[in-house]
Structures are given as C-alpha cells and as structure tokens.
Design goal:
Elements: E1 4-8, H1 11-22, H2 27-41, E2 51-57, E3 65-69, E4 85-89, E5 95-99, H3 109-120, H4 125-138, H5 144-153, H6 162-168, H7 183-195, H8 198-201, H9 204-215, H10 222-226, E6 231-234, E7 236-240, E8 243-247, H11 254-264, H12 275-294, H13 302-315, H14 317-322, E9 327-333, E10 338-344, E11 352-353, E12 358-359, E13 390-394, E14 399-403, H15 410-422, H16 428-433, E15 437-440, E16 448-451, E17 463-468, E18 478-483, E19 490-495, E20 498-500
Antiparallel strand pairs: 1-9, 1-19, 2-3, 2-10, 3-6, 4-5, 7-8, 8-13, 9-10, 11-12, 13-14, 14-17, 15-16, 17-18, 19-20
C-alpha cells in the first residue's frame, strides 16, 4: 500500500482522501474521493452537476494523460433559447451571471472520474463514493469559500428555486449558518456508487435532471446526457529546468495559458520575487491572456491555434511579449503517481433538480466558458475551460500535482506558485503563500493590474502535493502536501495504514 499525500479544499474532503488511502488507495483514488466530497459541501462552487478534468502522472513513469469531463453544449433536436435571466452581483468586483434552467450544460465530471478510476484506480469505485455519501447523509456546514460567495448571491441566485432557498436559508430568511441537509442527495450518491456514471447519463438521475430542466424551459434533454463521453488525451507538455509538466490540452485554454506563461517566464524568479520579476510577470500575463481573449476564445480550430501560439513562444519570446468558481484536489503517492483534479459548476443555475438534491450548473451562462453566447455552439460541442490541473515529473523521480480554482485567475495562480517553487527555490507552501498579481482583462483598454495586499480567495486556491524519492538505498521518501491559506485548505499524509502529520515545508 503506497504512502499518499493529499491537498484538498476543506477538512471533510481531505478526510475522504485519507480514508480511501488508508484502505489501500493510491493518489488517483484519494484525489477522486476528496473531489467527490467537494461536490457535496462546496455549495455554490461545485456540485455533482459539474464538469472537470483529471490529469494523471502514471506511477509507471509513462507520459501524463488528461481525462476531459468538461461540459457539453446541450439541445439536440430542440429550439435553443429561453429559460434564463441575468443577475448582477458585486461578487469578484462585479459580474453579471446568467442563471435558470436554460443555462444548464451537460455535465461530465463523474464520467471523467469513472474513466480515470478504471485506468489508474486500485480500490472499488463504491469506496471512492462512500465518504461523499456519509457527508451528505450527516449534513455539513458551508466552507468559508462557499460562505464568501453565497454572501453575495444567496438571494438572487440561490433564492428563486424553492428547494435551493430552503437549503441555504434559515427560518428567518437569513443565510444558513448551521448544518445543511439535502435528503435526496445521499440517495443520488448511492445510485452513483452502485451504477457509476451511467446513473447520471442514462439512468434515473439523468431522467430526473433532464425532465426538470426541460419542464422549466431549459434545453438539456435525455439525449444530451446519454450521448456524453469523457475523452482521454495526452497532456500538454512543458519543460522547466529538470521538471517536465503535463497540463490540460485543448479544447481547454487553461493548460495552454499555463504552458505559455511558464515558458515565457525565462526561469524567473531566482529567489524571492523582486520588482523586476513582477514587472516581467505582468508582461507575460498581458501577452498570454490578451492572446487568449483575441484569438483562442474565438478560435474555430483551437488545437491548431494553440499549437501555433506555443510554437511562437518557443521560437521568439520577445515577439510574443510585445504583442469562477471551482474546486481543486491534488494527490501524489510513493509509487510515483500523481493526480490533479479540477471541477466546476460555474456560478450555479440556482436550481436543484427535483428528486435528486443536486444543484445544477450554469456553465452556458458564463461568458468566459461560452464566449460565442448562451446557446451559440452546436449541441455536443465542448465549452471552453480555464482549468489547468497539472502534474510534474523530475529527472530524479520526484512527482508533483498542482492546480487551483479561481476562474480566469486559475492559470496565473498556478504559474506563480510553480515559478516560485521550481525557479525561485521556495518551499512548496512558501510558493503557494506568496502574494500574487493578476492582470484583469489583459490587453483591453480597461485592464487592471491587481496586486494582492492581503490573502483573498479571488486569487485562487492552489493545492499541491509532492513526492521526492529517497536519496539512497533504504532512505525514507519525502511526502509533502501544501494547501492555500486563501481557502479552507487541508492536507493529509498517509503512510501505509497510519496517518502522520504532513512533512515540514
């Protein structure tokens, strides 16, 4: 049974990863179990009606792979449009969110989890789902990240649907501060434990979800869920020093941005970030995020255009430089495996599908994910994603898993943490704790350099784990887990069947 290190968004999700690791699970098993719990207790950030990506560094040293379980455009055989309205909120400095049944996309994260487990897992599927069932059955308190988001939107987004309002509000109509219990959710998870992803795509849950969405004016039909398939792709590779990193490939844009920024940083910082390093970082963000807005977000052939951009980055750095709501879990194990999982339900449609206890996503209503407009894609087309779950392999055999939630801050958070760790020689926790910079609306007339003066979940929530092999025969391996203080991050280290405190960072 391998040693496993886990970094997760909250204590309950970290507990789930630990429970599965103690039962013989590897990094993939532990990460998936922890992520499943976030779909229960990270209300407003992620749910079972989510999309996500799982990037795995196989323990046999093979090339990293990414399982794409991101959202599909629904609407097969239906007239598109309707069932939505806009909500203006001060969250994140002010955003307009499109919600309602018409904003619900075809989910895929559980299908991706099932595929990753089939390829690389080592314990039965039911054991991965068991901790999430337990959390749903017992009830749970909102995480700090959920409370922060819901403070802005508990009425406007989560108050229009009767079940949703009852779940997040107390008897006086204020936001719930006690335990949240969704009686149908545990039963839904029991179906997922027994039947796997088919419960959500061709089974009872699929029927309940699609029927309710259609009844309320949406376009997510039974055929959209039945036809959904996760896709396994070779990860997008970048080399930085003695590290080889694998991240999310197209059609996601997040991994492309991470790869380009890492290459353009040119080994910065050397030590702590100084003023010149930060100035260069802003130039890199302007070049990469601006290119994303101008080219990648509207591309008809994202794989081609992303490849051309990365080729230009490698060929001529100077030419390039002059030109939401998610949850993340990382895990590594002593066999050399690493797993990075990022999942999201957007800002939430605000509705719970009747009879399921499942809050439904609003990913069709997020302009960052769907820049061609609410129903502007052909049914069956994958939406865009900022997500960039990343794994790394060092020439000495070390393995790393890293990722972050945070909408368009995902890529900048990951890059700054990786650069501090790989280039700057910082400890993993020190690199994650360091204040961040984010260029909002890069390359636009209203672009703003946002510099973190006090820790804020706006700048992401990086979770990372590391395994370093023993330097000699019989030596102990080093297992490290680091979670972001910007959220309720929690870490666990399991050696054999006995959990121990995380290694010193």
């Amino acid at each position: 049974m391998p040693d496993v290190s886990i970094a997760a968004p909250n204590e309950a999700s970290a507990d789930a990863g630990e429970q599965v690791a103690r039962g013989g699970g590897n990094a993939v098993d532990a990460a998936l179990a922890a992520a499943l719990v976030t779909m229960v207790n990270e209300v407003g950030l992620v749910s079972i009606s989510s999309g996500g990506f799982v990037t795995v560094q196989p323990s046999d040293g093979g090339p990293p792979q990414t399982v794409d379980g991101w959202m599909d455009m629904p609407g097969r055989g239906r007239s598109l449009g309707g069932g939505t309205w806009d909500v203006d909120t001060d969250y994140g400095g002010g955003v307009t969110v499109t919600i309602g049944a018409g904003s619900v996309a075809a989910h895929g994260s559980i299908a991706a989890f099932e595929e990753a487990h089939r390829r690389w897992g080592s314990v039965p599927w039911r054991e991965l789902v068991a901790p999430a069932i337990d959390v749903a059955r017992r009830g749970f308190r909102l995480s700090s990240a959920s409370r922060y988001y819901l403070d802005y939107v508990h009425d406007d987004i989560f108050g229009w649907d009767e079940q949703s309002r009852a779940a997040v509000h107390d008897d006086a109509g204020a936001m719930e501060r006690g335990s949240i219990v969704l009686p149908d959710l545990a039963a839904s998870l029991e179906l997922i434990a027994a039947d796997g992803a088919s419960a959500l795509h061709t089974g009872e849950l699929a029927r309940l979800i699609s029927d309710d969405v259609i009844r309320r004016g949406g376009i997510l039909g039974a055929a959209d869920l039945a036809d959904y398939r996760p896709v396994v792709r070779p990860s997008l590779i970048s080399r930085v020093g003695d590290w080889t990193f694998g991240t999310n490939p197209p059609p996601s844009v997040g991994g492309v941005c991470v790869a380009a920024m890492l290459r353009l940083l040119d080994g910065r910082p050397q030590g702590d970030w100084d003023a010149a390093d930060v100035e260069h970082l802003v130039r890199v963000q302007r070049a990469v995020l601006g290119h994303r807005l101008d080219v990648l977000d509207v591309s008809d052939d994202l794989a081609h255009d992303a490849g051309a951009f990365l080729a230009l980055v490698d060929r001529d750095h100077l030419a390039v430089l002059e030109s939401g709501s998610t949850a993340h879990v990382s895990a590594t194990d002593s066999d050399g495996g690493a797993c990075s999982v990022t999942v999201s339900s957007g800002y939430s449609s605000g509705m719970i599908a009747r009879g399921t206890g499942i809050w439904l996503n609003n990913c069709l209503g997020e302009p960052e994910l769907n820049p061609r407009g609410l129903h502007g894609l052909a049914p069956g087309t994958r939406l865009l994603s900022n997500m960039a779950p990343t794994v790394g392999h060092h020439v000495d055999g070390s393995a790393l898993a890293i990722g972050s939630p945070g909408a368009d801050r995902i890529t900048t958070a990951i890059v700054q943490a990786l650069a501090g760790f790989v280039n700057g020689g910082m400890g993993l926790q020190q690199a994650i704790d360091h204040p961040r910079v984010h260029l909002h609306r890069a390359g636009r007339p209203d672009e703003v350099v946002k510099t973190e003066t006090e820790l804020s979940m706006y700048y992401g929530g990086v979770a990372a784990t590391l395994r370093r092999p023993s330097p000699g025969v019989g030596g102990d391996e080093t297992m490290v887990a680091a979670a972001d203080p910007r959220r309720d991050g929690a870490v666990r280290l399991v050696r054999g069947s006995t959990p121990r405190p995380p290694a010193a960072l």
